[in-house]
Specification:
Elements lengths: L4 H14 L8 H17 L6 H7 L3 H25 L3 H15 L2 H4 L9
The structure holds magnesium ion.
Length: 117
């Protein structure tokens, strides 16, 4: 993981533009694509027992499949961020700061409850 989001986005945009696919990259479709790919990621875990999910952690083929779907999710996220003009790194830091304010360590350490519960 020795790269930047900007470098990955540039790579994804080169891939897209070489195929003249920007014309299809409307925000709505990119958001839907992201959700579809997240669904494909979920599908890899669907109906599996906890033991099967744990066994897949060290199965090389299963790791490749999970990585592929994670990459698909990231690709759509990068395209959507580009289309909307969102700086993902800044958005990430802003959101993490908001979450830190909502979930102070002294009140939420070791707790899975929601901040307003
Ligand atoms: Mg996929």
């Amino acid at each position: 993981m020795d790269t930047t989001l900007a470098a990955l986005a540039a790579e994804a945009l080169r891939f897209r533009d070489a195929r003249d696919w920007a014309q299809f990259h409307r925000a709505k479709d990119l958001a839907m694509g992201l959700s579809v790919e997240a669904g494909e990621l979920l599908e890899l875990f669907l109906w599996k027992s906890e033991a099967e999910v744990e066994a897949a952690r060290t199965d090389p083929a299963a790791k490749v499949r999970v990585g592929e779907e994670m990459a698909d999710v990231l690709m759509f996220l990068l395209y959507l961020a580009h289309e909307r003009g969102v700086d993902l790194v800044a958005a990430f830091h802003d959101k993490l700061a908001k979450n830190a304010a909502k979930y102070p360590v002294d009140r939420f350490r070791g707790s899975a409850r929601k901040y307003d519960a």
